[in-house]
Amino acid sequence: MDPVFINYFFTFWAFVYGLMVGSFLNVCIYRLPPKLFIFDDVLLKEESDFTYYLNRILVFLRLKKDEEQVILPSLYAEGMIYVTISPESIANNAFAHNFNLFRAYYPDPVNIVKPRSFCPRCGNMIKWWMNLPILSYIFLGGKCYYCKSHISPRYLINELIVGILWGTLFYIYGVKSLNVFFFYVIIASLSVVIFYIDLDFWIILDEITLPFTLVGIIFSLFIPYKFFVPYPRLLEFINFGAMFPSGLVNWFNHIVQSSPAWIHPDSLLQSILGAIIGFAIFWSIRVLGSIILRREAMGGGDVKLAMLMGAFLGPLKSGCAFFLAVVIGTLILLPLLLINKKTGKDQVPFGCFLAIATIITIYFGDKLIWLYFSWPMMVFK
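-> structure tokens emitted (381 positions)
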């Protein structure tokens, strides 16, 4: 059979599986944040999820003022309860009182396992044929089958994004590099979840970054070294013998050479170094920035996300991703600063920029690194 046809065939099915993964990630995006275990302000004033999401962006861009008083529905397996939280009530500890009241009457919060998917408007459970990626949204006309309330197109968009990520990554690496394909779709899919949660709630969950950092380090043992250091000759100018005892260097080289072809201790070392360096750099920025600015300069979630990126991308590629994140953030924030829509004291969901930069680096990191190290030769030759 034609190898090209086989590759396209499996690429299509990778896209389909990606759509199903995207549908599951939609659940994770809405239910993973601890805030959603009690409250879900997506239903604010009965506006659609897409409208709410757009309003969040407008508030972030300072194009719209945030409400002084919000209605926070509580999503539980047994039903929904609405409570009004104002600045005054928060000051009077009413929030804590309502929290305890809800936990007393509704001890089982919604999570990614239970209950089954249901319409947040009417509470009816969604049947399997109403939950097919893309198809159900089209057949239902973007509305709930029962109450005809609007379904946010964000569900559809997320499924398409993840499906495209899975399909294109499989097309690039194909059957011959399935280990690399799974390695990259894990971090790409996580980046989608992190992007939306950080944009919505300004948090990056430890439940995502910490365990998957360990997954990335362990998985790296089965990834060829070239995917961490695409151009090994870039490191030839470093004299490792002068930095470390020669016996240690020789011992490690012996392990690399004597290991089976499918085991890559050098990749494992790159993953560990990437995690350590990413954590150290962002932790230093967090500490020094807090001292200089006298306020929190960077969230702890961003520090752990940098560690996660380092574990999957290694020092070189994660460094490229960090630089891209700064560039993306600057391109977005600088115009807002110039038109006084934001100030230097405003919080910024930097995890969103890191997530976007991670996905870009997965696809173009090799070329960007080569361009960075080669441009002096091209310009001054």
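The first helix runs from residue 3 to 31.
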